[in-house]
Design goal:
Elements: E1 2-5, E2 13-14, H1 15-22, H2 28-36, E3 40-42, E4 45-46, E5 52-53, E6 58-61, H3 65-71, E7 86-89, E8 93-98, H4 116-126, E9 140-141, E10 150-156, H5 159-170, E11 174-183, E12 190-199, E13 204-207, E14 212-223, E15 227-234, H6 241-248, H7 262-272, E16 279-286, E17 299-301, H8 305-316
Length: about 325
């Protein structure tokens, strides 16, 4: 008999789904057969496929060591096995290039495994970049992007890095730059400094003097009179900050279903299949951070920058 304990990363999912990931080299039909034959128990009781496993659950596996070793997931993992695009990694941090459509964090149990943080943690544990036995720290990210916003997300691989990075974010010692395409002409740099609050039911923000302050700098790169490619620099980091600020400026981001121009979005969808906000977190620049001094003045760029430039050329021709 083999005995394992469900950890935080493997919790809150159906038992059959857990087995498929844990025994990645075993055919699904073989796992189902062993479930039917009562070869698995959860906390001493017969395991059923539809049962959910929770952190701390004890799994007894009545299979041979030979089968266990043959079925167990491989150990020579690469980032691509987890659908991760890693821009940079060292012993303290990891910088990931998030794709559009992927959540940064899970919002409920159905998102388990299908979000950037879970994929990052799985990668770090299975490649032995962090100790899976550590019960006091879990790798985490220090900035987050909306589901349909692409680009750079910073992860911390140890508690020291997490504390230092969070402090650096609060103190604006990590500069975050975005690229976007907006409807309208922008000729000069400008700053939006205002206050917003969030309507949780609608997942949307609005002007509110009792809300949180947001400050964003905008710099034009290129315009054809009807559309503009601009760079955005976040000086604060609030939900939908850039998207709301550009709506307030009457130059909404193209493709933005919450804050954009519906008529323009429909045209762009028909002609170029643009269905989400065109917004890329394309550059990070590190300042002086205690404990992470080696990162000072380092800049990191998203690989997706060329996609924005290519799209800009198509939009400008409309």
């Amino acid at each position: 008999m083999i005995e394992i304990t469900i950890n935080k990363n493997d919790a809150n999912q159906r038992f059959d789904r857990f087995l498929r990931k844990y025994f990645s080299n075993a055919p699904l039909s073989l796992l189902q057969k062993n479930i039917r034959k009562k070869n698995f128990k959860i906390n001493g009781k017969r395991a059923k496929a539809e049962m959910f496993v929770n952190e701390g659950d004890l799994i007894n596996m009545y299979i041979s060591e030979n089968d266990y070793n043959k079925w167990i997931r491989k150990t020579d993992y690469k980032a691509s096995d987890f659908d991760l695009d890693i821009i940079y990694e060292d012993e303290n941090i990891i910088i990931l290039d998030k794709k559009s459509g992927l959540l940064t964090h899970s919002s409920d149990s159905k998102d388990y495994g299908n979000n950037l943080v879970d994929q990052m943690i799985s990668y770090l544990i299975k490649t032995n970049k962090v100790d899976s036995r550590d019960k006091t720290f879990t790798p985490a990210v220090v900035n987050r992007l909306d589901r349909n916003t692409e680009g750079l997300v910073i992860g911390a691989k140890n508690a020291m890095a997490l504390r230092k990075l969070n402090k650096a974010i609060r103190e604006n010692k990590i500069s975050k730059y975005y690229l976007t395409i907006v409807k309208g002409e922008i000729k000069e740099e400008f700053t939006v400094d205002t206050y917003i609050s969030k309507n949780e039911n609608r997942n949307k923000v609005k002007q509110s003097e009792q809300g949180s302050r947001i400050i964003t700098k905008f710099r034009p790169i290129e315009s054809n009179g009807n559309f503009s490619l601009i760079e955005c620099e976040l000086l604060t980091g609030k939900t939908h900050q850039i998207r709301y600020s550009l709506k307030k400026n009457k130059t909404p981001i193209i493709g933005d279903s919450k804050y954009g121009n519906k008529e323009i979005n429909n045209i762009l969808y028909d002609k170029l299949s643009i269905k989400n906000q065109v917004l890329l977190a394309y550059k990070l620049k590190f300042g002086q951070i205690e404990g992470l001094e080696y990162l000072k003045d380092r800049e990191f760029f998203s690989k997706k920058k060329d996609n924005i430039i290519s799209l800009k050329n198509k939009v400008f021709k409309l």
